[in-house]
Amino acid sequence: MNFKGRDVISIKDFSKDEILHILKVAEKMVPIARSDEKSKMLDGYIMASLFFEPSTRTRLSFEAAMKRLGGNVIGFAQPGTTSIQKGETLADTIRTAESYCDVIVMRHPKEGSARMAAEFAEVPIINGGDGAGHHPTQCLLDLFTIWKEKGKIEGKKVALLGDLKYGRTVHSLAYALALFGVDMVFISPPELQMPKEVVEECKEMGVNIEVKSTLEDIGDIDVLYVTRIQKERFPDPEEYKKVAGSYRIDLHTLKNVKEDMIIMHPLPRVDEISPDVDATKHAAYFRQTFNGVPVRMALLALVLGVVK
Ligand code: NCD
Fold it and tell me: Can you give the CATH number for the domain in which 125 is found?
């Protein structure tokens, strides 16, 4: 297995064995991510962090990952302060950034932008989210979370709830869970259903998929993965208003769930999980947030060829 120099654009670019390898490397990174151990593993390396879209967790955890491994970070989170403002193309911005660094992490509102950037760049490109397209590193930290919390991924039953139409995290995760043979329930308002091609692809991979529009009957679910409605991706704000606030997890929802059912959420949440759920044993979303650091450490060390 060789990750050196590889781009991380879509989870589909990785085999199940490669994904498991990344998770195992991530596991070894946990003490460093917690600052219990210090590391100089990426001393002398520079990561460029190019964020053309808002981000809290993806950007901060990538930067923390790089710095915890002794590496350096350059970049921007406000493209309005760069030459993009003057009309520079993405291709030229990428060519410039790559001459200053060893790896680029980017987030961009346009689907396909990370793949395009990878065509221009010699250094590895890591996709931190391209529009409603892919979010492979979130997917890896989601898999890592299920693996750590549940002991294994295979054989679990997972419900994906919320904006399955525009949510990139669930597009990546549905594919990856199907790769692990996980049966899924897709629960969303009818307007925000999982794209047909994703449903078909998962079915073709041999897993059972149920499509629902209400939160009832979740008593056999092991993982409830909640997402926010992606307001910024609605072409028509009126359409957003129709679905806003249409589902919410609260203590009442949790009455008939499995004792050890976990709730995950890529965050940010808006109003889809009531804050009083945070104190229940089901809430795994802040542990999930932490997991972004060891998983991104693993990816950086692997694509830079410092770890095999
Ligand atoms: C997600 C994203 O950006 O796609 N956030 C994240 O990376 N943790 C989810 C979202 O914005 O709803």
Answer: 3.40.50.1370
